[in-house]
Design brief:
Elements: H1 3-18, H2 24-31, H3 35-47, E1 51-54, E2 59-62, H4 64-94, E3 97-103, E4 108-115, E5 130-132, H5 136-146, H6 150-158, H7 168-181, E6 184-187, E7 194-202, E8 208-217, H8 223-244
Antiparallel strand pairs: 1-2, 3-4, 3-8, 4-5, 6-7, 7-8
Helix pairs in contact: 1-3, 2-3, 4-8, 5-7
Length: 252
Amino acid sequence: MVGALASGLAIVRYLSVAGAPVGVSRIARHLDLNSSTCFNLLKTLVHERLVVFDESTKTYAVGLGLVELAKGALESASYARLVHPHLEAVAAGHNVTATLWQRASEDRVVLVARADNDATMRVHMNLGQRLPTYISALGRTIAANAGLSRAELRRRFDALRWDVSPGFEAYLRSVEEAGRKGYAVDAGCYVKGVTSVSAAVLDASNRPVMAISGTGFSAQLSRVAVKALGETLRDQAQLVSRALSGGAPVGP
């Protein structure tokens, strides 16, 4: 536990339920904080726009920065729910596990939605699971739309861990192919015996913000099946991309 961070979050929570602006002395007393420490934490929170300070009354209240953070989380959850029917259609139509991955940072994506197929044996992934951004098929399709230089992509590739590494040159060719086709394929490189197909979801600035994937056992996915899955994922990703840009509803 980082004490300063925990105390800062306690202040934000306290102000969010206070109902009215509060002075530093009252905040410090109620949260059992040193007054000087509380004041410095509040100054930092004001700087980050999570808290606002009223000079005339010398009181603090939650700021719009907190609303921005909440808005981002709520929008992500909302899109995950709206995209779920598309994932169910992919899972049922192609006998794969369909997943929606969202970029949580420059280096990580997180699984925010999943639809399983009815097969007795199937690939299972847990919601909240995190992966390196540029790994597997989802990494290739994100890389195809990220505008990275060869040197930067090489640096990111060198940090990845595979069951069977494709080698950078083969990885680069597959990224370029993903750019042409609109979807990427990982055939047993990231996880031996498992094939994953993925298409990137782009925002209004054409930046990759999510990826829709279909994953199954390689022995059960023929080349024809992989192509059909990729084209379906590409179409679904384009639909969601248009919705993110305000050009179309997300519903099926």
